[in-house]
Amino acid sequence: MTERDRGRGRGTGAEDVVRALRERGETVATAESLTAGLVAVTLTEVPGSSAVLRGGLVVYATDLKHTLAGVDGALLAEHGAVHPEVAKQLAEGARDRCGATWGLGLTGVAGPAPQDGVPPGTVHIGVAGPPGSVTRTFTLSGDRRQVREGASAAALDLLRKQLMIPIR
After folding, report:
1. Strand-by-strand arrangement of the 132-139 sheet
2. Residues near 19 by Cβ (< 8 Å), separated by ≥ 6?
3. Cα separation, 38 vs 152, whole angstroms
4. Among 113, 123, 143, 163, which has the minimal tally of Cβ within 10 Å of its Cβ?
5. pLDDT in tens, 112-136
6. Which of 85, 88, 67 shows the shortest CA–CA distance to 75?
7. Neighbour tally for 147: CB within 10 Å
8. In angstroms, how far is CA 15 from the centroid of its own chain?
9. Helix axis angle, 144-162 relative to 14-24, nearest 10°?
């Protein structure tokens, strides 16, 4: 993928996701922690994305995961911000608060140091939609930029799979 392609959402799965959502008349919203809005940015690089992206929450601080995205405070207190259930609740919160058909939630550790004992490269992604919610955990390698970009691509891929879009 060239820098020019990356700048237009190509090679990221974003084009397929935007196309499928438009065809279905559905929308998406994000609640992003470690990616700090990168998924929403990637989606908006695709022409026509304004028809499907409702909005996004950048919830980098742990308390904002609770106050803005609705993540259970007891869950955050017990397990910390980097946990699969947090990703699920972020996705559900994005969907609910933005009035979208689908929600994406991302949390993890981009590095370089561990967070709450969780090693860098650990990423939890949640997708919430009409059929329910799913979460996946990934272990990504690389520096902060690579982990964040990998998390964004993995989130779009997970949504693509939930939308049942075949790989082209």
Report:
1. 53-58, 28-32, 102-108, 122-129, 132-139
2. none
3. 6
4. 113
5. 999 989 999 999 999 999 999 999 9
6. 85
7. 25
8. 16
9. 30
- Residues 87 and 84: their CA atoms lie apart, in Å, by 5
Strands 122-129 and 53-58: unpaired
Give tens-digit pLDDT for 22-71.
Answer: 999 999 999 999 999 999 999 999 999 999 999 999 999 999 999 999 99
Residues in CB range of 108: below 8 A, 6 or more apart: 33, 34, 82, 118, 121, 122, 123, 124, 138, 147, 151
| In the block, residue with structure tokens 């329910």 | 132
Length of the chain in terms of residues written: 168
Residue 103 · residue 131 · CB < 8 Å: no
Supply 46's token pair: 């695709």
pTM over 0.90: yes
Single out the residue of 139, 104, 135, 145 nearest to residue 123, CA to CA: 139
> In the numeric block, which tokens belong to residue 142?
């690389």
